[in-house]
Design a protein that fits this description.
Elements lengths: L9 E4 L6 H16 L7 E6 L5 H14 L3 E7 L2 H10 L4 E6 L7 E8 L7 H10 L17 E3 L3 H11 L13 E6 L9 H7 L2 E6 L18 H9 L4 E5 L6 E5 L4 E2 L1 H17 L13 E4 L4 H9 L4 E4 L3 H11 L3 E3 L5 E3 L7 H15 L3 H4 L8 E7 L12 H14 L3 E7 L5 E8 L2 H25 L1
Parallel strand pairs: 2-3, 2-4, 3-6, 7-8, 7-9, 12-13, 12-14
Antiparallel strand pairs: 1-5, 4-5, 9-10, 10-11, 14-15, 16-18, 17-18
Helix pairs in contact: 1-2, 1-4, 3-5, 8-11, 13-14
Amino acid sequence: MSRFLRQEGLRGVAITEITCELMLRLGRAAAQAIGRTSNHPPVFYIARDPRRSAEALESALCAGICAAGGIAHTLGVLPSSGLALMLSAEDAEAGIALTGGDLPYESICVRLFAKDGLPMSSEQLDTISSMMPSSAAMPLKSHQNCGIIVRQEDARKRYLRLMASRLATPMDLRENGSMRIALDCANGSVSEIAELLFRHLGAEVLMLNNNPDGININRECGVQAVEPLIQFVKDYNCNAGFAFDGDGGRCLAVDETGELLNGDRMLAILCEERLELQENAPAGRPRVMERGVAATVMSNLGFLRYAKLRGIPLQITQPAPQFVLDKMHNLGLALGGDGSGYLYFDDIPAPDGLMTAARLLQVIQRTGKPLSVLKEVMEYDPQVAVSVRIPQYWREIWKNDPEIIKFINACEDELGTDGRILVRERRDDASIRIMLEGRDFRRINNYAFAIAEVINARTTKAKKQG
């Protein structure tokens, strides 16, 4: 069980794989483990998204926490980034989010946070994992020692206040004309709060997919399907549009012409904003951009060229939130992100789509420039991504297959400096992701599918021989 819980979360089909019994044991183990280092009953913040299964699993989780003497504060429907932000600002020992990001409603992910709002350490997770088996000795609290459940009705308001305190007020901006924006909430966690935040920032807000019913989260909406938002922005003459995932952590933008901006282009705009503010800052202010920006191996070549041109050191990490967050905190970086739409800020402990969109909006307001102009700060290279399923027993083995390696190396030699090839195994399932990048879309597309065919042929042959 030592590797049962990971920093990226415990993921599976709700109720049948992530069961109520499992949540009961997780709650008991977490309260027992956290309570060891506290001289009072440990306080947990619990947040969830609006998928149907989350409320039942939340009840089981709270029951487990109380059985071990902990105090469970339920925050209701709230982004996990909101939970993280509140943990960093308020007095609680830990937090647990029941959410699914961009997963369909039948799946769920359980994520554990430390009191500073960052993901729990591997050591903490290992300790909790070791206490979770049903055979593990687990003393229960009864009578006056049993924990309680506190339902916080104002959690959303407190989250929005914390967000607003980190943003410029509308009267502080040089340019604050009438702005019309569209928000696609993916029928998820930000459905009831996004409009309030952006109205506070002085925008006229038009809403899409903000009526969750428990099963429509991420269904043909949000970051999973941006085409309706693109058309909406053009039809209603919006200055910008923003799409979120069901948990509100990811964000993609659409400019006023209907062109999509991924995370790399949004990050470049925000880097440019920080550089300009840094140049105009009073003497003695920390020049945080000189420390660099955290990017992942999946970041676009165009962003890498932009950073080099602007003299921004790049700190490259693996494409997972914990790696980016570790790099930012260890080096004191101001910004980080990747092309998928997860952006990271030095004043928030978790990627937050609302903050990403809000800060982009304020760049538009401050500069008076539309997104279509701001995005030109970097040239975007086309990308092609293909996934290939492999047998479970071929995990890691494919990396040493001579035919696969020889073919990938040959493609890299032909591509040369005109692009790059990244082939890696996904951590959460038995599949290989092939990503190619370059200015010639047709060429990289042909390479991507050729590599996929070779991998598929080799794994199929190995399966037949086995």
